[in-house]
């Protein structure tokens, strides 16, 4: 069976982002195949663990992927500080006399952003509202590559490696069946190390913030990169709690037009026409946000990557340009606006090389630097009694249930299929057991 069909059958989606179905993304011919191993967000350690412990499998998978997309340049992009990981990958490359090469990046945020990585590796700027394919590249997450290796061996995507760290007793990597509860993952890490915590699902900058009570409903999905516990009074948590209407008022009253948000914006530095300070200026003189939606600078909010560097690091007034951009993007979508990809070529700015923010400094601003140097080596294998498997763990249409309540299933069995003529991904049982219930949103399986 061709590798692309194996990827589709296995239900593989992008592990490092929104979960775009891999069989669609990799159905292309490109010059550059780039494997994203830079683990963009501070504190996450999953990809680093995989590089050390699964190096041979990863290099094998990357070679297969490169042959499939006919790439002539094959790179695994990772941070130059990943010494042990580099050594493991170089050993696997040498053993196979592999054409795969390592591209060592500086340790800055957001090094793992797909478009930033393409700019660094190829020197080409992905156009605003474009994708790497527009400049002859395709980017795949390292964990996705490992899942593709498993698919080539006949193993569907049924489990996820993720980081559980922060204010926990024993930070660790967890290998969990899809649908495993957050509570099970937290237990594997020894539970909270302090009273009064919030949970970040994902990285500290772009992840979602939950109270412990809200986090009880979280389960491991194909796109879960980690769970981070942080104290209730951490700046990271307090920033999440500021309502958007407050941010809008502060923007109108307090923006001093220093332009730092624009000067440090990763998208602006790659050559995109995004200027957050101009958006803040327009907002300051408007009666309401709805009055400025036709302005070209405001429309450029649509190309904001929402990395959060502007509000976490750049703004001296503590304002939230990212939150403003997200709000304006919502208004523009409601109005039916679609950002048209420009035909002109774009080039990165010369100053980009010296406007890179170290990841540790970002962690300090967020109040999570105490967890930055955790060396996580242990991997906990979880065997939950019950899994709640969502039918939508990917971009596209939800999967259609292929089982009914009462059915007996085995791990790896297809339980959700791609709707006909729709973008989607197959879903498989992550444990052996019996289906307890099937709804429009999830399938619950109990071990027997």
Describe this structure in words.
With 448 residues, this protein is α/β, with parallel strands linked by helices. The chain folds into 4 domains: 3-152, NADH-ubiquinone oxidoreductase 51kDa subunit (Rossmann fold, 3-Layer(aba) Sandwich); 159-234 and 367-384, Ubiquitin-like (UB roll), CATH 3.10.20.600; 244-354, no CATH class; 386-448, Beta Barrel (OB fold (Dihydrolipoamide Acetyltransferase, E2P)), CATH 2.40.50.100. The protein contains 18 helices and 19 strands. The protein has a 6-stranded mixed sheet with strand order 9-8-10-6-7-12, with helices on both faces. Helix 3 packs parallel to helix 5 (83-96).
Strand-residue fraction?
Answer: 15-25%
Distance between the termini: 33 Å
Summed over residues and divided by their number, the pLDDT gives a mean of 96
Oligomer: single chain
Please estimate the helix content.
25-40%
Dominant shape: globular
CATH topology annotation of the largest domain:
Rossmann fold
- Which second-level CATH architecture of the largest domain applies? 3-Layer(aba) Sandwich
Number of strands: 19
What is the C-alpha radius of gyration, as a whole number of Å? Answer: 22 Å
Secondary-structure-based class equals alpha/beta
What is the total number of structural domains?
4
CATH class wording of the largest domain = Alpha Beta
CATH superfamily of the largest domain: NADH-ubiquinone oxidoreductase 51kDa subunit
User: Taking strands numbered 1, 2, ... along the chain, how are they ordered across the largest sheet?
Assistant: 9-8-10-6-7-12
The total count of helices amounts to 18
Described by strand count, sense and barrel closure, the largest sheet is: 6 strands, mixed
